[in-house]
Amino acid sequence: MNRRRFLSLAPLAATVGFSTSALLPACAQAPKYERIRDVIYRKKGGVALTMDVFKPEKQSGIGVLFMVSGGWFSSHEAINAGFCEPFLKRGQTVFMVVHGSQPKYIIPEIWQDIERAARFVRYNAATYGVDPNRLGVSGGSAGGHLSLMLGARGPAANPEAKDPIDRVSGRVQAVACFYPPTDFLNYGKSGENALLSDTLKNFRPAWGLLNPTPEQAATLGKEISPITYADKNTPPTLIIHGDKDLLVPIQQAEAYLARLKELGVENKLIVREGKAHGWPNLVDDIHILAQWFDDHLPAK
């Protein structure tokens, strides 16, 4: 695959996903919590992949994996403690997951990081004070895409694995995210392959195909689309999306949730009228995500 170096990653990350410093400043009155920095969950290519863990003073047992991802680019510097505040107020423990970034790694390789992160959290649930059966996942745009992938395609336990972490499941029990791509083969309208369109041309390094053939685009587009994997076991899913989003059309949320409805999976779409790809008061909607987890991850 052609993985030519993408020269300007900063604008890319700010365009798709959470602009972490712009949308939500660090919260001055956040609840008391402990922040555990640089927890290594995977090593690959000589690089340690990490997450920061935010433990509220009073834990409810719910764990939320938050995908730190914009344009499938991720960095420790993009972690903003302010995003955790709505979850922490409810006693939810947050795992801010930093994954390998494009263009060095493409989406199928990034997915391997997410699988590992989910297994890691479940394996170490007792260490961090969470219930391994009360895990949710969240993120925005690319982070929302990875959230839906984990919800629909979370890895099953592999009891034969040599690594004990791989012997546990990477499934989550609830999903709540913002404006995610869901179906790259029908992007905005039926038959529109996003890997071939101009809308996402700046993100081609994320799939390693700068000039894909229709055959390549069809194969990879199916592989990286959450809608491909949705089934009756997909957990309850909430999506918040602006109806004026030109980068990730609201049709993506509508199509995915329509599929979940067909499968009998609980789902909800909240439409933000007149909003594009992100909005200034998005912090208020993070509280809605946290409430979704409270409602769908009850203590047994």
Task: Summarize the SSE layout with pairings.
Layout: H1 9-15, H2 20-23, E1 33-44, E2 47-56, E3 63-68, H3 81-88, E4 93-98, H4 107-123, H5 125-128, E5 135-138, H6 142-153, E6 174-178, H7 214-223, E7 237-242, H8 250-263, E8 267-272, H9 282-296
Parallel strand pairs: 3-4, 3-5, 5-6, 6-7, 7-8
Antiparallel strand pairs: 1-2, 2-4
Number of domains: 1
CATH class: Alpha Beta
The CATH topology is what?
Answer: Rossmann fold
| DSSP helix fraction | 25-40%
Q: Main sheet: which strands, in order across?
A: 1-2-4-3-5-6-7-8
Strands, count: 8
Distance between the termini: 47 Å
Question: Mind telling me which CATH architecture this is?
Answer: 3-Layer(aba) Sandwich
Instruction: Name the CATH superfamily classification.
Output: Alpha/Beta hydrolase fold, catalytic domain
- Give the overall silhouette: globular
Count up the helices: 9
* Biggest sheet architecture: 8 strands, mixed
How much of the sequence lies in strands comes to 15-25%
The string of secondary-structure elements, in order, is HHEEEHEHHEHEHEHEH
Radius of gyration: 18 Å
Q: Strand pairing plus helix content: what structural class?
A: alpha/beta
Overall residue-averaged pLDDT value: 90
